[in-house]
Design a protein that fits this description.
The chain has 354 residues and is of the alpha/beta class. It is 36% helix and 15% strand. The model has no long low-confidence stretch (mean pLDDT 97).
Amino acid sequence: MITVTKTFFPPITEYQKYLERIWQNQWLTNNGELFHELSSSLKNYLGVNHILPMTNGTLPLQIALKTFAQGGEVITTPFSYVATTSSIVWENCTPVFVDIHPEYLCIDETKIEAAITSKTTAILATHVFGNPCHIETIEKLASKYNLKVIYDAAHCFGVKYKGESIFNFGDVSTCSFHATKLFHTGEGGAAFVQNKQDYHEIYYRHNFGHDGPLRFHGLGINAKMSELQAAMGLSVLPHMPDILDARAKVCAFYDKALTSSRIQKLKIREGTDWNYSYYPIIFETEEDLLQVEKAMNQEGIYPRRYFYPSLENLPYIQTKTCPIAHSIASRVMCLPLYVGLNKEDLKKIVSFLC
Ligand SMILES: *Cc1c(COP(=O)(O)O)cnc(C)c1O
């Protein structure tokens, strides 16, 4: 069976080495040694200002919204994973959908200004498939209208934009370290911020609001990463160069093999060092997609309709439609992409698309 993704498992002995340290320390969570080691290793590897690893990639979104959006209208798009919109609603904010760019698949920056009202407090934009949003325009609008910028950068591990980590943009960027993502800790994620004050704001909220053992700074929740998660991250991180290399080769194969003008590929924004996180293709029609999907499934190949459906269709959303997002969501499919896909698998996959 060939699935859309396959979790990378580091050699078990490398994981065991970290487990032994956990047993030696007799320390499983709350500011543990491995949590700190992972934080500083990731900080160096990614070249970021401040990182706070958490227990998944959704809580950093919720905490960022709690901190910066404060119940207002939040500009976002319906072409993302459900967590982007559900977090806005969960935090009692109102999602205001702006359509996406038909080639970059991120929020269409030219349509943001028209959606800003006196109630707008933040922009929550997803760097879709690791492809950066139009950061410069978003920054300009944010300073003109005094808005906070949160990037859902769940797909962006290792992405650089104009030579700098993509996580160094916006007031907060968040990443997911879920087992299906490029770099993982089983379940996990992180918030990235640009200064100490914001770090403190996010930090206390991720730990019940504690400010020292006996004092509370404000309202918080539990989003702490455990030592077991950190151990997995520390075991996976040294393999990132090999993981990226293997994935780059798969992408290069697809790039070369998929020449049909009936298949649209992702356009990566100029100035981006991309991370080969997904290989989306967009069919001309949903019927084409369904036909190919069915034929692949019969041969044991399971690509994924991602993102589908468009988030305007969520049962708790009532807003106007975004025609481009709606159309793309119905026609997009992510092809299998993981370490260990061999040439034969790849040839079989593309045979359905040529
Ligand atoms: C995976 C993902 C999330 C959620 O991350 P979890 O770690 O699964 O909580 C949020 N946004 C996007 C775009 C994602 O792909």
